[in-house]
Amino acid sequence: MPVQLHYEKCRLTAFLSGEIDHHSAAALRGQIDQSMMKLHPPTLVLDFGEVSFMDSSAVGLVMGRYKQLCAYGGELEAVNLSPVAYRMMQLSGLQALARLKPKTPSELGAEKEKTYV
Amino acid sequence: MKHTLINQVKLEMDSRSVNEGFARAAVSAFAAQLDPTVEELTDIKTAVSEAVTNCIVHAYPDTRGKITLWVRVYGDGLVRILVKDRGCGIADIAKAREPLYSSLGEERAGLGFAVMESFMDKLSVRSRAGAGTSVTLEKRIKGRAQ
């Protein structure tokens, strides 16, 4: 499962994982939108904590959800962003539309221990 | 400045979206011989992913075509990646390179070229309507040694 959805206290959180590109974004979009349509959450949280790679398709995913939330006045947060993810979101100007939260230095420190191939 | 070619690989693949992941993993694995940092490899993977996605969604919107990747590494740490298609071409390259411009609706951020430009040292785009597009990406790997 590329996304786990959790609804609590008016917040729908989508825990994203793995690689987000144009190929994988379609399935993620489908699952998130299904929950959003059912719940109309006042706040949607996209959690990038377990995302190992993303390209600008992930920014498209965030922007697309933002437009849907706008339709009924919902708010958007993108959290646990890696430095690369944060840089890419800023390239798009998303910081004006959504609350962006990078990973904390301690979380990043723990990640350096891992090795990627 | 003259760069000395030390190794190269050429890959040809179908324009299927499942190959986006293959393309960036293959280029990253090949570039690993320059002993890059994790950050440098991520930059390269991201740029390749953008270039290959462009071929799939823009160059061959309603057909299936071939994408050629040609990766060359040089003695001074330069990696040069050519991503080539024989698709529809880009009518207005300057417009296509503008950040946030996309010809494809709101699920695409319009950031492909902006990301390639920002994550690599150099980006050049050549295109002819009806004949295809060539994107060249360059990055000088400073590597773990420094």
What is the CATH C-level name of chain A?
Answer: Alpha Beta
Find the CATH topology of chain A: Transcription Regulator spoIIAA
**What is the multimeric organization of the chains shown?**
heterodimer
Shape of chain A: globular
Low-confidence stretches of chain B: none
How much helicity do the residues of chain A have?
40-55%
Compressed to H and E, one letter per element, the order of chain A equals: EEHEHEHEH
Provide the gyration radius of chain A in Å: 14 Å
Descriptors:
heterodimer; A: 117 residues; alpha/beta; Transcription Regulator spoIIAA; five-stranded mixed β-sheet; 4 helices; 44% helix; B: 146 residues; alpha+beta; Heat Shock Protein 90; five-stranded antiparallel β-sheet; 33% helix
Structure overview:
The complex is a heterodimer of chains A (117) and B (146). Chain A is α/β, with parallel strands linked by helices. Chain A has one domain: Transcription Regulator spoIIAA, CATH 3.30.750.24. Chain A has 4 helices and 5 strands, in the order ββαβαβαβα. A 5-stranded mixed β-sheet of chain A has the order 1-2-3-4-5, with helices on one face. In chain A, α1 (22-39) packs parallel to α2. Chain A is globular. The two termini of chain A are 22 Å apart. The mean pLDDT of chain A is 90. Chain B contains 4 helices and 5 strands; from the N terminus they run βααββααββ. The interface between A and B is medium-sized, with 26 and 29 residues.
